[in-house]
Sequence to fold (271 residues):
Amino acid sequence: MYEKIQATVAFINEKTNGFQPELGIILGTGLGGLVHEIEAEYVLPYETILNFPVSTVEGHSGKLIFGKLGGKNVVAMQGRFHFYEGYGMSEVVFPVRVMKYLGIKNLFLSNASGGVNPNFEVGDLMLITDHINLFPAHPLNGKNDERFGPRFPDMSEAYDHQLLAQAKATAAKLDIHLQEGVYVGLTGPTFETPAEYKYVRIIGGDTVGMSTVPEVIAARHLNLPCFAISVITDLGVPGKIIEVSHEEVQKVAKVAEKKMTLLMKTMIAEM
Fold:
């Protein structure tokens, strides 16, 4: 895997003339609008990148974008990879490892999720302060490569406390309301049943989704600080549960992403 990643890094460096990003960004379902704020210098469709998986989900356009955002060199994934698409965990987290060896020092992530906290409303932004991993496979299963990180990585600060504090201070200045909470990662691709929503709440979750957790685990294994925002696109709260479609999730995400884009762009400029 290490050699495969290095080959992809070398391929990308050749295509981008050695562009060195200091920040990596992974954008979730319906949340690709942030890329329009990037002063793009290079755009590589996933299918053109050596060894890269290809996104198969609507709302994930599948491009690696290199450029400037808030005065910083960034690389952004417009569209991510999910376990439910049939990819193994090593493929799901492959881009995170590639971005690390391209030179990033921090990883920002976003996702669309279902809120199970009764204080949440559709369209809220939630800072992810922690997560619960309910995926049936783990991105670090198998023989450990010490070049990536230790056999037993610490996860006591999966989401960087300093970046969370900065996000809250920035949101206060911008008058953006933020929720905070725990994200629970499930495989999907089905949306949860009422009983599953209830279970997620009982075990300590505030929101539930189908991504992010594997990528954060891989990033922390690589000692990359992580910051993540969840857009609440539907509610799994008793009395508020309605039929959900992928199209509806994308629609809500697109409305809320303006606030998320402003917050992330301002944070990055102030880093």
Summary: The first helix runs from residue 2 to 15. The two ends are 32 Å apart (CA to CA).
